[in-house]
Amino acid sequence: MRAEGVVKRWGPTTALAGVDVEVRHGVTGLLGANGAGKTTLLGLILGLHPPDAGRLEVLGLDPARLGPDVRARVGYSPEHHRLPDDMRAHDLVAHLAEVHGLPRREATGRASDMLWEVGLGEERFRPVGTMSTGQRQRVKLAGALAHDPDLLLLDEPTDGLDPVQRDDMLRLIRRIGSEFGLTVLLSSHLLDEVERICDAVVILGEGRLLTAGTLDELRAGAEGYVVVVEAGAEELARRLVAAGASVEADGQRLEVTPGGDEVADAIRDGVAELGLALLRLQRRRVTLEDVFLAAGTRDDEPTPSPA
Amino acid sequence: MSDARIVDRGYRPYDGPRLGAPGAIRSLVRHTAWRVLGIRRNARTKVLPALSAGIAYVPAVVFVGIAAFIPDDRLRDDVLPSYGEYYGFVTMAIVVFAAFVAPEALCPDRRSGMLGLYLASPLTRDTYLLAKGVAVGGLLALTTLGPPLLLLLANTLQGVGPDDPLDVLTTLARVVAAGFMLAAFFTVLSLVASSLTDRRAVASAGVVLVLLVSAVVANVLVEEMDAPGWVLAFDLFDTPFELAGRIFGERGEVPEVSTAALATSAAVVIGLGSLFVRTRYQRLAVVS
């Protein structure tokens, strides 16, 4: 999926303001607070509405012109948990495979297979209305997978799940991205679950692309060192800034970015030349939250996952 | 030979044919028809469709039986209804179906989130509505078209219907035209009510209310307030059945209303109703 300068307005509100992004094979997390433009982007990918400006390409097709062709090859699991209560899980998944273009016999067979894959093999003939939220999430996932899509869009797939169910679901999504070989775009506002299973991240904020890249790339940009000295941190900080590093001071504790050997050498030389007592020098552990905050998003949203 | 077996084949890519939007429409038509009829659902959901079918077909079967046992032509013509008059026997079946069964086609999809899932498939809003309309219209046609066709077939075979092949064809064309007109009229009426609410009971009440209120208002205007006779063409309960009778060359209870006024009224309901449902669905938000 590739977006170039994509703009989408809803009346006076600009939901997407010139977003450039590329989603490659693997599991990609789509992060952002409520109103960041995640759902609008999913709608554009599905061809449900055209962009007001810019260019969008999904699986080599323009979804605004060839929506049905794109949707035939995309699986979508929505955020809501509502499903027809009186339908059996197997019938629902088979029907979804059929409306995505599979012949009836194939749809029926794959519905069973997918329900086994998501861990509902024994429950597949139960009415959806008797299932828990976790099981409904799995039914939705099976429905999105049954027609063997090239691209899978998952909107908050762990919403409403308890910690154990959440772990299971995340493991399953990771499997889909690696073992099943599908491209997955996971929309979420929970940073730690994206960090656990995604290869790459796209972060949106107020309709703009804040940052995008693989987790390794993004972490590398935010890596650094924590330096604690007994005294003289102010002078050391001045030297490091002069050497081109970025420093945040908290008493005698300094957070120095970026990482890398040159900065490490500058810290060593500074401490030695100033004759400081070095109490601690360690690599700073970079989380996705650090990346997110560095990307310029407000620090109260999105939220770290509940324990 | 080892008796070991592979119990988990893992995820298998699908390389077979993909049927695209036509396949999606066919699947949705079948699924909707089954759902409306209560197939693969609990027994309670089958009651109203069965009642509707019973009301529609039992008189036809009875009349076929009577025709077989009454040898005298004049007596038979006195006892048996004409094709146009037959709709008087199936009015309730059609109304029960349109009001209480057909809303099952649209309302639950919005309530259960299925609409969003359908629109994330090769279906568009228009093809979704097309599939729903075909499903409901097809089932309604079984009620409006089936019994008169059964009568025509039985009467022809028993030699008590139209004798001349041209007469048979003419009657067949009239049966088909009247049946499709009634099916289209009540399908649109039901879809309009269903498009306004995601609660089936409210949609049912809406259909009944529109039929009753239009009948009462049109009749009060004409009979009590001396409005011109064509106002009765806005009686949505009687208009389609009166028009069905006119297709067979018969004038029913409102002979003062011209056939053109009745046809215009039916065309306006079908045309504007379809446009209304389409516009309503174009504006619905779906990804949530």
Can you put this structure into words, describing what you see?
The complex is a heterodimer of chains A (307) and B (288). By secondary structure, chain A is of the alpha/beta class. Chain A has helices at 38-45, 67-72, 89-99, 104-117, 133-145, 163-178, 191-197, 215-222, 233-242, 261-274, 288-294; strands at 2-10, 13-22, 27-31, 53-57, 74-77, 151-155, 183-188, 200-205, 208-214, 224-229, 246-250, 253-257, 278-284. Chain A has 2 domains: 2-216, P-loop containing nucleotide triphosphate hydrolases (Rossmann fold), CATH 3.40.50; 223-285, Alpha-Beta Plaits, CATH 3.30.70. Helices cover 37% and strands 26% of the residues of chain A. Chain A has a 6-stranded mixed beta sheet, with helices on both faces. In chain A, strands 11-12-10-13 form a 4-stranded antiparallel beta sheet, covered by helices on one side. In chain A, helix 3 (89-99) packs parallel to helix 5. The longest helix of chain A is centred in the middle third of the chain and has 16 residues, at 163-178. The relative contact order of chain A is 0.14. Chain B has one domain. In chain B, helix 1 (20-37) packs across helix 7 (125-144) and helix 7 (125-144) packs across helix 9 (165-195). Chain B is globular and about 80 Å long.
